[in-house]
Structure formats: C-alpha cells, structure tokens
From TrEMBL, chain B:
Superkingdom of the source species: Bacteria
Subunit record text: NDH-1 is composed of 14 different subunits. Subunits NuoA, H, J, K, L, M, N constitute the membrane sector of the complex.
Localization annotation: Cell membrane; Membrane
Membrane topology: Multi-pass membrane protein
Record keywords, A-Z: Cell membrane, Membrane, NAD, Quinone, Translocase, Transmembrane, Transmembrane helix, Ubiquinone
Protein name: NADH-quinone oxidoreductase subunit H
Family: Belongs to the complex I subunit 1 family.
Principal cellular location given in the protein's record: membrane
Amino acid sequence: MPEPTVRQMPVLAADYFHSYSVVGLLAVIGVLFVAVAFGAGRLLRPVVPTPEKLLTYECGVDPVGEGWAHTQVRYYVYAFLYVIFAVDSIFLFPWATVFAAPGYGATTLVEMFIFLGFLAVGLLYAWKKGVLEWT
Amino acid sequence: MNDALDVAIRLVVVFAVFMVLPLVIGQTEHKVMAHMQGRLGPMYAGGFHGWAQLVADGVKFAQKEDVVPAAADRRIFQLAPAVALLPYLLVLVAVPIGPSEGAVGQVVDAGIFFVLAVMGVGVLGSLMAGWASANKFSLLGGLRTAAQLLAYELPMLLAAASVAMAAGTVSLPGILNAFHWWWLPWQIVGALVFFIAGLAELQRPPFDMPVADSEIIFGAYTEYTGLRFALFLLAEYAGIVVLCGLTTVLFLGGWHGPFGADGLGWVWTLLKTAVLAFVVIWLRVSYPRLREDQLQKLAWTTLIPLALAQIALTGIVKVAIS
C-alpha cells in the first residue's frame, strides 16, 4: 500500500528536521556561550607576556628539543582492531530494533550468534597473536 | 509563535542544567572527597561550608592571564576547550527526565546513536589540546587519551546496543516506555560495562592515566591556564552529569520508581543520577590509578567479552519472551 506511506512522509520529514534544528539551535547557543566567555575573558584578564611565560612548560627546566617528539606508538594495532569492531557494532543498532519482531525470532538469533562468533574469533585471534599485550 | 517560545524555554532550561549541575557535582566532590579523607574541604568561600568555592574559582580563572606557548599551534590550542565542552551540552538535550512527552529537551529519534556519536566528539578536544600544545607531556597525554577512547568506546557501544535490543528501539523515551523492573537484573552486566567504560572515556580516576599528574604533569591540559583550563574542567564535570544521566536512562529505568512515577518522575531521574555521580566520586577516592597496559587489558579482555555475553543473553531472553 504505497498511499499511506506517501501521505506520512512529509510529516515524518518535518519532525526529523524539527528535532535536529533544535539540536542545531542549542549548538549555536553553545558556540555563543564560548564566544562570550572568551570575549569577556579578554576584557578581564591582564596581558603581560614575557619570553619565559611563552616557553613550553616541562617541569620548570628549559625544554629540550621540539615538542612534537618521536614516540613509540604502541597502540596503532588497537586502532585497527577498534575500526574493525566499531564498524561491525554499528550494524547492531538497526538490527536491534527489528530482530525480535514477529516473523524473525529464531532466525535472527542464529544470525546474532554467527555475528558474535565472528567478533569473538577475531578478538581471540588478536589475543593469541599477542596484540593485546602492551610490552 | 507559541512553538518558538516553547523551544526557547526548553533550550534555556537545558543550558541552565548544563551550567548548574556540573558545578553542584564539583562542589559535592570537594566536600565528599574531603570527608572521606578526614578533611573538611572548602569552608571559607560563601560562609556556609564553602558553598561558593567554585564561584570563587570561576572568578579567579576569569582573571588569570591567558598564556599560549610560543611553540603551540595557536588556533587549535585556543579552540580545543570549546570542542571538549560543547558535545556534552548537545547530549543533554536528548536525555528524558520525566514520563510525559514534554519532559525532554528534544526527542531525537536516533536516540542512543546520536548520544554516543556526539559524546565521542568530546574526546577530540583532548586530542587537539595534546597535539597543539607542542609539549612532550601534552603529546603523551593526548596519545593516551586516544588509546583509551579506542579501547573503551567499543564496550560502551556494545552495552548500549544490548539495551536497544531489549527495548526494540534506539529512541531514549522509547526505551524508558518499554522498561520493566526485571530489566535491572537482566541488563546488570551491560550496565556495569557501560558505566565503567564511560568513566574511562571521561578519564576519571581510576582511569586517569592520560592526565596522570605524577608522570605527565596534567597530560593534554598541561599548557592551559585561566578560562580555557576552566572550560576543560567544566567539560569533565558535564561529562559526569551526562554519563550518569545516560546510565540512569538506559539501565536504571530513568523516571520509573517504586511509587509516584507520574508526578515525581523527574525526581527519580535526578536521584538516580545523583547517586551515580556520588559513586563516581567514591571510586576516585577508593581506587589507585590503573597502569596504561592494565587499562587496555581491562577493556579488551574483560569488558568487551562481557558486553558480547550480555548481547547474547539479551538476544536469547528477548526472543524467548516475544
């Protein structure tokens, strides 16, 4: 029955845009708040810069080398893992809203266990490979 | 015109809540921590038990010189506090506090999805601060923040998905309408995972490795002073409000209470949120900081498997009863 769908569509769309425009308005208020706070701060505070003040702070002694230093990034593998898992998990939400609807039931449940199985195997594999060890 | 007024009032209320509740929690933290440690805490400002301490702090912060290090990436450095703070304001608008249609800033259909997505933005502020400061300690803090976000976002997402499955909707008022008391034991594992992961995302003790003062000064916020520093602190406490509010709505039944749900619904929401906020403070006093590797281990080898188990349990029970 396409007709009721057509009739409902504009209303739904209007609601949708209304709710996000309110969110947008709140964002504008938030930005204004920060702008006013920073502006007021500019008027209230003293400005007396000296070279010592503008130096990078490292426990009181003069900084050695640059601030953007080399460091050992141990967790780039975590980042990969996260991306893989997070992309998977996103699909849970639309599925979660319908999986128990009449007519699905057992089928979706089996599907869920296959999905969880994939995630669990992936995690176990990463664990076994030693990716989850820090050192 | 009426609609516009309605929206305006809602926005003002949300903004007021956003300004006031974090301060209340901050002051409570001063006093609760002090008494748990056998101290008195602030007693002077305002006269009565130092109630105006945070107001005094605010006045002090506003008058302090704003120092941007010469080596820093100026624009990003100055913008970071705003990026850290504003997402929590946006999340508050979607949190329902009472049973009626109007007892929420604005019903957002995408509910959980919207809330988790926007909360994730807040951590970008810490990353920007850590990178733009051009300070080794800030950089380390920023990277630790990134690692922590990656590790704990996932269990949080999975635990929230479990509630969405139980309710059959992602809308926050929809979840509360579907709530029954027996969800409490049913979703308890998910609730714990969500709350712990949320604490870690806020970098609250015992998950405060990114700002560990004994090792990296104050992590990503080392170079900040005055108003910008204050905004970072405000973001932390606004984060507590949002986390406790969301845990209340998703797992503890929000406005549902043993009695008086219709008239007093919002009291239940506030009460549960307050109790959770107290727990957040309590944990800070009770537990030592986790080491970086312990942090990662807890997330990947404990919380994520637990969250997956919770999803399996939710799925089985839900299909069994429907």
